[in-house]
Specification:
Blueprint lengths: L1 H4 L4 H8 L5 H4 L4 E2 L3 E5 L9 E4 L5 E4 L8 E3 L3 E4 L10 E10 L2 E13 L12 E7 L7 E3 L16 E6 L8 E5 L2 E6 L10 E9 L11 E11 L6 E3 L2 E3 L5 E3 L2 E6 L17 E3 L8 E7 L6 E3 L6 E3 L7 E11 L5 E11 L12 E7 L9 E2 L23 E5 L5 E4 L2 E4 L7 E11 L5 E11 L21 H35 L4 E2 L10 H4 L29 E2 L29 E2 L9 E4 L9 E4 L5 H21 L5
Parallel strand pairs: 2-8, 9-15, 19-25, 26-32, 35-36
Antiparallel strand pairs: 1-3, 3-6, 4-7, 5-6, 7-8, 10-13, 11-14, 12-13, 14-15, 16-20, 17-18, 21-24, 22-23, 24-25, 26-27, 28-31, 29-30, 31-32, 33-34, 36-37
């Protein structure tokens, strides 16, 4: 019994039950084959993540610690319920609870790690950033710090690369970034508020080092820089020529005064009155003038506000003053100096004079106020009216001009301008007075202004260019002249062919026959009425021209009459044509070219194919016409002796 009372050996129990100990307990709980997964973000995962082994008397549900809305259980299979996003949640967790009749039997946890991808573009915290920078900012200084320009990228592992691109052309060399990964805006060159008052740049950022990398994302923002003026430039005496944005080669002034005179008005200087302005025009500090040196015996006085130079006393003898004049800003921060040369000359009392007593100008009808009158002889240039004083030939700036008798025009220096709109065509005469402000001498001249329909060409244009109001350039007119010349040549060739075609047979026999008398034709009124024509004087002996009428139209040749010697007509009598009859028509053909006036002829070379030369003169004299008859007979006699060109 005792033997029966002994416990069952393990092997016997296993044989009876057919399974190892604990297998029944293991089959009573939920289980999964895998509890950790890795999935790239933005992946739409539709397959079940894992199958859940659930005992028949139990149910599996998602616990409260599961990632909200991330999973679902369908027929004991765990599914991913969302498209994973690394930036939103890099790790998803499914909490599985197995219960039997509401009692928790076991619980499992399944983790999904979301892998990060480059799926987000960098973003600037601004679209446009406006920054003011002082003009005197030192080179290599930071204009905008990195924290104000860096972009943000939701992809945490991305490295951003920055590029500065110019929008304002030429401004790129003034600024740069500290590094490709450090968007610090740095000044590389000195600023010039007049050259670059405002500049615009584009800041580009990329989340890859290479432009053609895939995937790659970019973003841009705009930088606007406004340069604030600083006091960097001294006052400049005008006029001056700029060498750069900081230095202006300023004027030196010259003038002249007569001996023994204290001029009441400010001196007229060349190239203009003493005037300076703040080189920093945006600041525009008030300028104060003064004489530093050269004012011997206090001869001159200089207005501190206007810069007008006047005489405090006269100078008895010729000399030269070299005045050093100072222009200083009102804040006493900066100043500059220039030289004023004043020559004291002995005036002889001569008066200024104009080289022309009459000037001719032109202006277009409808010109408004302030339009300059142009030179009628050269409409592309303005009409310049300039007088000179023999005592001061090089000081034309000392001479002032004014129109004394016409309110439609005024003088602006040496040029005339309109003071009203000229609505009508016509000619105007204006008197211009020149006055030397040094010697007080005056002179006058007259200007004839033609108000024309066409706008004269403007000045300052090179040959071949089109100026304001100029319809055609010199090149256009040359081209037109060439075309007209070609057309004229073609017309002459056509005339030769036409003459040869219609009169070729007659030309062959012209030396033996004469056409029938025809009614004379006329090419103008001078030949139509011989007794009313304004005849020219008779040609000199030995050069008797041939005077003929229009070419004959008869086709039947008449026997040539033997040459005769008719008497010359008396002065004032009508010309008698060849043949002794007023209606007879002489031949217009000749072998000899006669350059004298008063005849019309067609001259040929040695053969009929030579080019015809048509000479028409419409003002023969009465004597020339009469003498022309004998000339015809002489020509015919010569033709008989020498023979026809076709013999």
């Amino acid at each position: 019994m005792g033997a029966w009372a002994q416990p069952w050996p393990p092997l016997l129990l296993m044989a009876l039950l057919g399974r190892p100990p604990g297998a029944e307990a293991q089959a009573q709980v939920c289980s999964v084959s895998k509890t950790f997964f890795e999935i790239e973000e933005n992946t739409n995962f539709t397959e079940p993540l894992v199958d859940i082994l659930v005992p028949g008397d139990q149910q599996v549900t998602l616990g409260s610690s599961s990632t909200l809305f991330a999973f679902r259980i369908l027929e004991n299979q765990l599914f991913l319920n969302v498209t994973p996003d690394y930036e939103e949640n890099p790790l998803l967790q499914a909490h599985l609870e197995c219960k039997r009749r509401g009692v928790l039997v076991t619980q499992l946890r399944v983790f999904v790690a979301v892998l990060d991808l480059n799926d987000n573009a960098p973003v600037f915290p601004f679209a446009t950033k406006e920054t003011a920078v002082e003009e005197d900012t030192k080179v290599n200084s930071t204009v905008i710090p990195e924290t104000a320009l860096e972009a943000e990228d939701a992809d945490e592992d991305d490295i951003l690369f920055y590029t500065l691109q110019e929008v304002t052309v030429g401004a790129r060399d003034l600024f740069s970034l500290l590094g490709a990964n450090r968007p610090v805006l740095r000044l590389d060159r000195p600023l010039d508020v007049y050259k670059w008052p405002n500049m615009t740049f584009r800041l580009l950022v990329r989340d890859t080092a290479e432009e053609n990398a895939e995937p790659s994302h970019t973003a841009t923002a705009t930088l606007v820089l406004q340069v604030l003026p600083a006091d960097l430039r001294p006052p400049w005496f005008l006029p001056c020529a700029f060498s750069d944005g900081y230095v202006c080669l300023q004027a030196q002034y010259r003038g002249a005064v007569p001996t023994g005179h204290k001029l009441p008005a400010p001196l007229v200087l060349r190239p203009g009155p003493i005037y300076a302005e703040d080189g920093d025009r945006s600041l525009n500090q008030r300028i104060i003038y003064g004489i530093l040196s050269g004012n011997v015996n206090g001869t001159f006085a200089l207005s501190p506000d206007s810069g007008n130079l006047t005489m405090a006393q006269s100078v008895p003898s010729p000399t030269t003053f070299l005045l050093v004049v100072k222009a200083e800003q009102a804040d006493l921060a900066r100043y500059s100096v220039t030289q004023v040369t004043v020559e004291v000359l002995a005036a002889t009392g001569s008066l200024p004079g104009f080289p022309q007593s009459l000037y001719r100008g032109t202006v277009a009808r409808g010109s408004g106020v302030g339009v300059a009158v142009r030179d009628a002889a050269a409409p592309s240039q303005l009409l310049r009216i300039q007088a000179q004083d023999p005592d001061f030939p090089d000081l034309n700036s000392a001479i002032t001009y004014q129109v004394t008798n016409h309110s439609d025009f005024r003088m602006d220096g040496e040029f005339m301008l309109t003071t009203t709109s000229l609505a009508h065509l016509g000619v105007f005469y204006a008197e211009v007075e020149a006055k030397n402000t040094v010697t007080l001498g005056t002179a006058t001249t007259v200007v004839e202004i033609q108000v024309s329909e066409q706008e004269p060409p403007s000045t300052g244009m090179p040959d071949g260019g089109l100026a304001d109001g100029k319809r055609f350039s010199v090149g256009d007119m040359a081209t037109l002249g060439g075309v007209l010349g070609v057309l004229l040549l073609l017309a002459l060739l056509g005339l030769v062919v036409l003459v040869h075609k219609h009169y070729g047979q007659r030309l062959k026999c012209c030396s033996h026959t004469a056409p029938d008398p025809q009614t004379p034709g006329f090419d103008n009124q001078a030949f139509a009425n011989g007794h009313e024509a304004n005849w020219a004087p008779a040609p000199s002996p030995g050069h008797v021209p041939k005077t003929t009428e229009a070419p004959p139209t008869a086709t039947d040749p008449a026997p040539r009459e033997p040459p005769a010697s008719p008497a010359l007509p008396s002065p004032g009598s009508p010309a008698v044509p060849a043949g002794g009859s007023p209606t007879a028509v002489r031949s217009i053909l000749t072998k000899e070219r006669r350059p004298q006036g008063g005849y019309k002829a067609v001259w040929f070379g040695e053969d009929i194919g030579a080019e015809a030369d048509v000479v028409v003169l419409n003002a023969p004299s009465t004597d020339a016409d009469g003498a022309g008859d004998s000339g015809d007979e002489d020509a015919e006699a010569d033709s008989g002796r020498g023979g026809s060109p076709h013999d």
